[in-house]
């Protein structure tokens, strides 16, 4: 998420430091897109859509849904709160990203909402603060563990945008944000059911109230292991795509796209092999489709960028990595046995493609 990108490329992500400069350099002489600064309600809506990169939002819900599936939870009220919190924190990171980069964007990307004057910097910073607060409030409704995960995610997003984006630690920070986003969904239980005391009939002693048995340490350890694997998968993918995004401005890197290609291929192969080894009949083959879609979406542009490391092809590789997040989330949910969740997440792919034609995700 930014969420972070999160890549964002993450997608829940704020774009990497080189990403914005690369796209701006490619379009430095292009006229500013969209309406005149601050003119008309339609222009204002368009400006906020660009600032928040709404087309990248579709890469966010799958984090919490995959986390819930890994923890063995059926999607419910707690999961809905986690998805809402994740979306808010992701968009907070997007607004904060442009606020922090407003001086660079004034030179490299003057058409962006802040340097073009369509949105005031104070408004972007205020939106980042309000969205962060909203995300934490929603997470609190999903329980204390979810609030803890959301607070860690919010701290990671703000630290990335304000301090760490231009450091060597940036890919690792973005990877941590995506992993925390999945943990948020895995820990979201929602408000517990309330039991109303019913007075006993006259002359009969009240029955003792029993509590459900608490899960033992062994069950907790198994849950942690189930969640750790998909969280690590999202982190590896995010790290790889963020590392590639740092070369968007100048290109010239062959090893980084090759390394990212190796990582994404390994993730896809691991998901597919596990599905083939399950003795569950045709249902075990469900993860194969999103795994294949993931490798194709991420791998093909990465291969092109490795063979011809130009800025445009490197930028396409980053965009492919952002879009590939959705089938990866679906594959992880399907691996956990949540077939319905996986199908629902995959349904976000065409929606993301359609909106990306109108509003850039980077």
Write structural notes for this entry.
Helix 1 crosses helix 12, helix 3 runs antiparallel to helix 9 and helix 11 runs antiparallel to helix 12 (311-335). The protein starts with 16 loop residues before the first helix and ends in a 6-residue tail after the last helix. The protein contains 14 helices and no strands. It is 65% helix and 0% strand. With 362 residues, it is an all-alpha fold. It has helices spanning 17-26, 41-52, 61-70, 77-100, 102-108, 121-140, 144-164, 170-187, 217-245, 255-277, 288-307, 311-335, 339-346, 348-356. The longest helix is centred in the middle third of the chain and has 29 residues, at 217-245.
Keywords:
single chain, 14 helices, 362 residues
- Percent helix, as a range, is 55-70%
Anisotropy-based shape: globular
The major β-sheet equals: none
| H/I helix tally | 14
Q: Quick gist of this model?
A:
Helix content is 65%, strand content 0%. It is mostly helical and 362 residues long.
Describe the protein's topology.
Layout: H1 17-26, H2 41-52, H3 61-70, H4 77-100, H5 102-108, H6 121-140, H7 144-164, H8 170-187, H9 217-245, H10 255-277, H11 288-307, H12 311-335, H13 339-346, H14 348-356
Helix pairs in contact: 1-5, 1-12, 3-4, 3-8, 3-9, 3-12, 4-6, 4-7, 4-8, 6-7, 7-8, 8-9, 9-10, 9-12, 10-11, 10-12, 11-12, 12-13
């Amino acid at each position: 998420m930014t969420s972070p990108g999160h890549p964002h490329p993450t997608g829940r992500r704020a774009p990497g430091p080189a990403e914005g400069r690369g796209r701006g350099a490619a379009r430095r002489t292009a006229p500013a897109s969209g309406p005149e600064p601050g003119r008309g309600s339609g222009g204002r809506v368009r400006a906020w859509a660009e600032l928040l990169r709404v087309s990248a939002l579709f890469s966010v819900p799958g984090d919490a849904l995959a986390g819930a599936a890994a923890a063995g939870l059926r999607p419910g009220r707690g999961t809905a709160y986690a998805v809402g919190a994740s979306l808010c924190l992701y968009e907070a990171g997007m607004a904060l990203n442009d606020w922090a980069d407003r001086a660079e964007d004034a030179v490299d990307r003057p058409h962006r909402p802040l340097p073009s004057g369509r949105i005031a910097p104070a408004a972007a910073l205020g939106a980042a603060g309000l969205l962060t607060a909203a995300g934490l409030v929603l997470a609190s409704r999903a329980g204390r563990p979810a609030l803890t995960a959301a607070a860690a995610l919010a701290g990671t997003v703000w630290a990335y945008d304000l301090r760490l984006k231009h450091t060597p630690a940036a890919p690792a920070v973005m990877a941590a944000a995506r992993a925390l986003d999945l943990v948020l969904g895995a820990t979201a239980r929602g408000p517990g059911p309330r039991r109303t005391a019913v007075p006993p009939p006259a002359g009969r002693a009240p029955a003792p109230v029993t509590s459900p048995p608490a899960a033992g340490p062994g069950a907790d350890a198994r849950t942690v292991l189930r969640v750790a694997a998909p969280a690590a998968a999202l982190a590896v993918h995010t790290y790889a795509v963020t590392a590639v995004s740092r070369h968007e401005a100048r290109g010239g890197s062959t090893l980084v796209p090759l390394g990212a290609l190796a990582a994404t291929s390994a993730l896809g192969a691991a998901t597919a092999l596990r599905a083939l080894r399950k003795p569950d009949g045709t249902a075990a083959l469900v993860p194969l489709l999103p795994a294949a879609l993931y490798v194709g979406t991420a791998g093909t542009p990465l291969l092109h960028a490795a063979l011809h490391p130009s800025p445009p092809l490197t930028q396409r590789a980053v965009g492919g990595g952002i879009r590939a997040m959705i089938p990866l989330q679906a594959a992880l949910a399907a691996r956990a046995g949540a077939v319905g969740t996986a199908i629902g997440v995959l349904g976000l792919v065409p929606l993301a493609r359609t909106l990306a034609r109108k509003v850039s995700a980077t």
